[in-house]
């Protein structure tokens, strides 16, 4: 639920005139001035900071007993990756939290002449008495500031729809990333192929399939990287080739790879190479067997694989899935997806999503391979590990739900999930369009739908436009 929305649009020329007046710059926070100086576009950066203050005031003033002074208390900071976030004094954070505000979402965009900022104040929903589930509305480009909500968030259609970024009109295949699928053996030749097809259907621009040469399938849409393999499975002899392939790609490792000792050594070596990656199936077995810590990874275990990773039994995992997934995320410093009914997605800091999509018809061989490919596709498109995993889980489940409606839960296969990915995207786009309809923004934004329209147009325009975030 949105408790407040503020939109502010600043003309750069008029702001530059105001900024030149004596003493004006001293009113900005040190972090804002430092970022402006380092950015090389000081006037533009300070215009963004001013727009953020104005938008926050519009969103929050009606919730506070005394709104005087809050304009300059809201500061526009940047995280380590350069994304914008709103920094508030502790007293103001506490006052907003007491009024049900759990997140402050901020988005910035600009073109040659104007800077636009949108601020949303979001509250949580009460459910089943003591348990609270935060319904987080995060439109494309928005970054949240958590103010004390529960760390277990349900992935709903509305939330997943808001994670869909726009596709730029000037995009090309490289815009949407390159997935590298590493897997396959003589016993499981089809697993990596399903992962590759799922990554393509989920939106990756390019997919390379690195498998033993004896099982390399002729897939027209996929780049084939045939690897020498003794006895039908990969070993350390393939490591130099794969290491050279890793840069600029999102590896998805483990599907049908085998558990031979030589393959375990290979998978363990790949898991610690730099860069974001997805590790599934036999790749997870290798982590447990070798006792290593992966780097920048999304791990996708089912209960049995989770038990092996944690050194406990599957029954103990199922007894408290939430504790298990959080322990694994903290232990491996990774985003962990615990597959099953109401799949859980946990970050190392304890935050956790619980999925609301999916059905028993998806309990079929290859379903996990499809999920790994979907998550890989979203990592390739530049989405962060936690959100890519959460979105991938929901999209995978939604495609399964649509397949079940058409085929029943009794007659589904993993390839059916891939086939229904377009329908799943179409459904999410309908939801997103309803959320961002001009009527909704006009109603919640004091009739300023034109600002919203300009914001959306600027975000998808390539020529002469650069996003501040």
TrEMBL record:
<dbReference type="Pfam" id="PF01256">
    <property type="entry name" value="Carb_kinase"/>
</dbReference>
<dbReference type="InterPro" id="IPR037143">
    <property type="entry name" value="4-PPantetheinyl_Trfase_dom_sf"/>
</dbReference>
<feature type="binding site">
    <location>
        <position position="369"/>
    </location>
    <ligand>
        <name>(6S)-NADPHX</name>
    </ligand>
</feature>
<feature type="binding site">
    <location>
        <position position="256"/>
    </location>
    <ligand>
        <name>(6S)-NADPHX</name>
    </ligand>
</feature>
<dbReference type="InterPro" id="IPR008278">
    <property type="entry name" value="4-PPantetheinyl_Trfase_dom"/>
</dbReference>
<keyword id="KW-0479">Metal-binding</keyword>
<keyword id="KW-0547">Nucleotide-binding</keyword>
<feature type="binding site">
    <location>
        <position position="368"/>
    </location>
    <ligand>
        <name>AMP</name>
    </ligand>
</feature>
<dbReference type="GO" id="GO:0006633">
    <property type="term" value="P:fatty acid biosynthetic process"/>
</dbReference>
<feature type="domain" description="YjeF C-terminal">
    <location>
        <begin position="156"/>
        <end position="428"/>
    </location>
</feature>
<protein>
    <recommendedName>
        <fullName>ADP-dependent (S)-NAD(P)H-hydrate dehydratase</fullName>
        <ecNumber>4.2.1.136</ecNumber>
    </recommendedName>
</protein>
<keyword id="KW-0456">Lyase</keyword>
<dbReference type="Pfam" id="PF01648">
    <property type="entry name" value="ACPS"/>
</dbReference>
<dbReference type="GO" id="GO:0000287">
    <property type="term" value="F:magnesium ion binding"/>
</dbReference>
<comment type="subunit">
    <text>Homotetramer.</text>
</comment>
<keyword id="KW-0521">NADP</keyword>
<dbReference type="InterPro" id="IPR029056">
    <property type="entry name" value="Ribokinase-like"/>
</dbReference>
<comment type="similarity">
    <text>Belongs to the NnrD/CARKD family.</text>
</comment>
<dbReference type="InterPro" id="IPR017953">
    <property type="entry name" value="Carbohydrate_kinase_pred_CS"/>
</dbReference>
<dbReference type="GO" id="GO:0008897">
    <property type="term" value="F:holo-[acyl-carrier-protein] synthase activity"/>
</dbReference>
<keyword id="KW-0520">NAD</keyword>
<comment type="function">
    <text>Catalyzes the dehydration of the S-form of NAD(P)HX at the expense of ADP, which is converted to AMP. Together with NAD(P)HX epimerase, which catalyzes the epimerization of the S- and R-forms, the enzyme allows the repair of both epimers of NAD(P)HX, a damaged form of NAD(P)H that is a result of enzymatic or heat-dependent hydration.</text>
</comment>
<keyword id="KW-0808">Transferase</keyword>
<feature type="binding site">
    <location>
        <begin position="339"/>
        <end position="343"/>
    </location>
    <ligand>
        <name>AMP</name>
    </ligand>
</feature>
<dbReference type="GO" id="GO:0046496">
    <property type="term" value="P:nicotinamide nucleotide metabolic process"/>
</dbReference>
<dbReference type="GO" id="GO:0052856">
    <property type="term" value="F:NAD(P)HX epimerase activity"/>
</dbReference>
<keyword id="KW-0460">Magnesium</keyword>
<feature type="binding site">
    <location>
        <position position="302"/>
    </location>
    <ligand>
        <name>(6S)-NADPHX</name>
    </ligand>
</feature>
<feature type="binding site">
    <location>
        <position position="191"/>
    </location>
    <ligand>
        <name>(6S)-NADPHX</name>
    </ligand>
</feature>
<keyword id="KW-0067">ATP-binding</keyword>
<dbReference type="GO" id="GO:0052855">
    <property type="term" value="F:ADP-dependent NAD(P)H-hydrate dehydratase activity"/>
</dbReference>
<dbReference type="InterPro" id="IPR004568">
    <property type="entry name" value="Ppantetheine-prot_Trfase_dom"/>
</dbReference>
<dbReference type="GO" id="GO:0110051">
    <property type="term" value="P:metabolite repair"/>
</dbReference>
<dbReference type="InterPro" id="IPR000631">
    <property type="entry name" value="CARKD"/>
</dbReference>
<dbReference type="GO" id="GO:0005524">
    <property type="term" value="F:ATP binding"/>
</dbReference>
